Amino acid sequence: LTYEVLAWRLTWYQALKECGVRGGHLASVHDIQQNQRLSLIVKTDGFPLWIGLSNQDFSGSAYEWSDGTKLDYNVALAGSRTDFISGKPGPNCVFIAPDGAWTRTSCNAAVDGAICYNTTVTTAFQRARLQAPPEANGCPQGEGGSQWVQHQDQCYAFNMSFYNYSVHSMEKAEKICQAMDAQLLTIKSTEENDFVSKYLYNDPFITRRTWLGMTLDSQGKPVSWKDGSALVYSNWKSEASLSDGRSKPPCPVMMWDEGKWNFVNCKTTYSRVVCKTEARSAGTSAALVFFILVLIAVLLVAAYVIYKKKRGYFSSTIRYERTLDDMDTSSAVELS
């Protein structure tokens, strides 16, 4: 485990992106030794530095580590839950001050730096991804290093570079997917639910929540997916309820750590975005090429048949034959 200090002013989201492009995460703390080590780094630097702790659901849920690790070490937080721009409650992120205090403030506030960490420890699934990256031949072309992931006949945009290394409101998430000619994540089977939750578990980012593209009726009850398909499969938490006042207006999310679905407040919650679209299968492309070749062959045969039938119109029926008359024969002179 190695730490790196980003020594310039940046927001928490910018710090998260910078750590990510370096192949790491914002620092997380899980015991008193790690806390002492990070506090020493901050004290030596002399400026407050971001760590990976945040609360993206400002209706009152628990804080989360951006690297997906458990919140198993607690420190009292100083500071305000008020957004410094709007003056209203908003996403809160944590930095460590030079005196060692953990302080929360707006995630959009600029702090003097951040602490990233890198590790060589990976899960078996992550090692498998490094050895054999998923093929995405039927998926849209990503820009830069962004790649879609193909699973069966569907393509998924998991990479956070698609979303500017940030989490978003439900409204913003839908607009992002529409701009990509895709739909917000839908789940049609147990197998797909397991695939998505496993992928997100092994590629954590900011929060456990991921928006689901589901249509709700006027009472807030699920009726269908936003792509128009029926809501045949579901995986709700047993305690998922629309009666919880904090979840109104309700929006559905998947919790990737257990693959269960739940409701959160649409207006006070930021969640991860995963866009999804159908893959263009190789079989479909081959069939299209074959169809075009057959069509060309049929047109050529039809043209030949028409030509044969109309041949008389294209060639003359008059025949010319040269005959020899008396004048012609007399023109032959025998030489002796």
The percentage helix is 25-40%
Please indicate the count of domains.
2
Q: What is the structural class?
A: alpha+beta
User: Which residues form runs of ≥5 with pLDDT under 50?
Assistant: 127-133, 327-336
**Overall pLDDT level:** 82
CATH hierarchy: architecture of the largest domain: Roll
The CATH class of the largest domain turns out to be Alpha Beta
Q: What is the CA-CA span between the terminal residues?
A: 120 Å
Placed side by side, the strands forming the largest sheet appear as 4-3-6-7-5
Describe the structure.
- Keywords: Membrane, Transmembrane, Transmembrane helix.
- It comes from Tetraodon nigroviridis.
- InterPro entries: C-type_lectin-like (IPR001304), C-type_lectin-like/link_sf (IPR016186), C-type_lectin/snaclec_domain (IPR050111), CTDL_fold (IPR016187).
- This is C-type lectin domain-containing protein.
- By secondary structure, this protein is α+β, with helices and mostly antiparallel strands.
- The protein folds into 2 domains: 117 residues, Roll (Mannose-Binding Protein A, Chain A); 149 residues, Mannose-Binding Protein A, subunit A (Mannose-Binding Protein A, Chain A, Roll).
- It has 8 helices and 17 strands.
- The strands form 5 sheets. It has a 5-stranded mixed sheet with strand order 4-3-6-7-5. The chain has a 4-stranded antiparallel sheet with strand order 9-10-17-11, covered by helices on one side.
- A hairpin with a 2-residue loop joins strand 9 and strand 10.
Index terms:
single chain; 336 residues; Mannose-Binding Protein A, Chain A; five-stranded mixed beta sheet; 8 helices; 17 strands; elongated
